[in-house]
From TrEMBL:
Biological process annotations from GO: ceramide metabolic process; glycerol metabolic process; intracellular triglyceride homeostasis; lipid droplet formation; triglyceride biosynthetic process
Task performed by this protein: Catalyzes the terminal and only committed step in triacylglycerol synthesis by using diacylglycerol and fatty acyl CoA as substrates.
Record-given protein name: Diacylglycerol O-acyltransferase
Transmembrane segments annotated in the record for this chain: 55-79
Length: 364
């Protein structure tokens, strides 16, 4: 009994005091318009799609009648390296990215994509290569980078109309491509793994990429109406631009990404915090403690809140050099230019998008 009490005390002491309320469930109005219901279903699909495809695969292998399909698929799965060799460009489906489903998803929050300048197209209307590629750096990570998915992995925010001639692949953890069928679903949206080798090959195939720079560590810092960006030591994307050639950097800031969930913070050095950091180091992702709303209630569940996200795309940082071995000074120079432009789009737009009293904190 004493052992269980000690564990309970350790868990309680690991959690920072928050304004998490005692749950008093507020149920959805039965008269909610159909459009909002469809938006909720679209968002719920995205949140649960990994699990849905996992269940689908298990069901298919559980019934021998489907083995005629599953056995050839598994042979393909074992030998296909598309998520890691740049061949996502061959799996990229403009039709799939343009499904009405994604409009409903983006309208759920809603997500809006704003550009500050026109970007030179990579391809002209005839499909000829005429301009540079881009690395879009997305900030902040939040819980799941929901805005990045809507803005850059789908046409829900009219990406191709705003940035014509610039095909793009959103990059995510390679572990997501270990799930059969789900991996092919992701690649149809142009999503691919975030390894350096793969990124170079995607750029080498004249496809721009979007990287959520802060990654797993930044998700642990996520708080409502607070902006902490893990950026000071994140310079790999700058090296990537220099070594790939004719590739420019474009900072992107999402106002509202961190407001989609409420976060239960853990203390630095605490038992729960150490578990989170261990998971991050071991599996390359982490598990923040969070909650939002449900499908049929407004105040508890895993469905994100309907909070507007305004995603602002800044001016490109023109990379003039091309070398396979950039110096630290060169990398620092372009990194500083990138950070300055990122700060500029934040402070130029924060009043407009409800962040008037929120300061930007740049962390290691």
């Amino acid at each position: 009994m004493m052992k269980h009490d000690n564990i309970s005390l350790r868990l309680r002491s690991s959690v920072v005091k928050t304004d998490v309320p005692i749950i008093n469930t507020l149920h959805c109005d039965i008269n909610t318009p159909l459009q909002r219901r469809l938006q909720t279903l679209a968002c719920a699909w995205h949140i649960t799609s990994m699990g849905m495809f996992s269940v689908l695969f298990l069901l298919l292998i559980a019934f021998p009648r489907f083995w005629i399909v599953i056995i050839p698929y598994m042979v393909y799965y074992m030998f296909d390296r598309s998520p890691a060799d740049g061949n996502v460009v061959k799996r990229y489906s403009p039709f799939f990215r343009s499904l009405l489903l994604w409009k409903y998803y983006c309208n759920y929050f809603p997500i809006s994509l704003h550009k500050t300048v026109d970007l030179e197209p990579t391809f002209n209307e005839n499909g000829e290569r005429v301009g540079p590629k881009y690395i879009f750096g997305y900030h902040p990570h939040g819980i799941g980078a929901l805005g990045a998915f809507g803005a850059f992995a789908t046409e829900g925010c009219n990406y191709s109309s705003l940035f014509p001639g610039i095909p793009i692949s959103l990059m995510t953890l390679v572990t997501q491509f270990h799930i059969p069928i789900y991996r092919d679903y992701l690649m149809a949206l142009g999503i691919t793994s975030v390894s350096r080798k793969n990124a170079l090959k995607v750029l080498g195939n004249d496809q721009s990429i979007c990287i959520v720079i802060g990654g797993a560590m930044e998700s642990l810092l996520c708080q409502v109406n607070k902006v902490d960006l893990v950026i000071k030591k994140r310079k790999g994307f700058v090296k990537l631009a220099i070594t790939s050639g004719n590739t420019h950097l474009v900072p992107v800031f999402s106002f509202g990404e961190t407001n989609s969930y409420k976060i239960i913070q853990t203390k630095d050095g605490s038992f729960l915090r150490n578990i989170q950091l261990w998971i991050k180091e071991t599996f390359s992702f982490t598990i923040p403690f969070f909650y939002a709303r449900g499908v049929f209630n407004y105040d508890f569940g895993l469905l994100p809140f309907r909070t507007p996200m305004n995603i602002v795309v800044g001016k490109p940082i023109i990379i003039k050099e091309f070398t396979t071995d950039p110096s630290n000074e060169m990398v620092d120079y372009y990194h500083d230019l990138y950070v300055e432009e990122l700060k500029k789009i934040y402070y130029d737009n924060k009043d407009k998008y409800g962040f008037k009293n929120v300061e930007l904190n740049l962390a290691d």
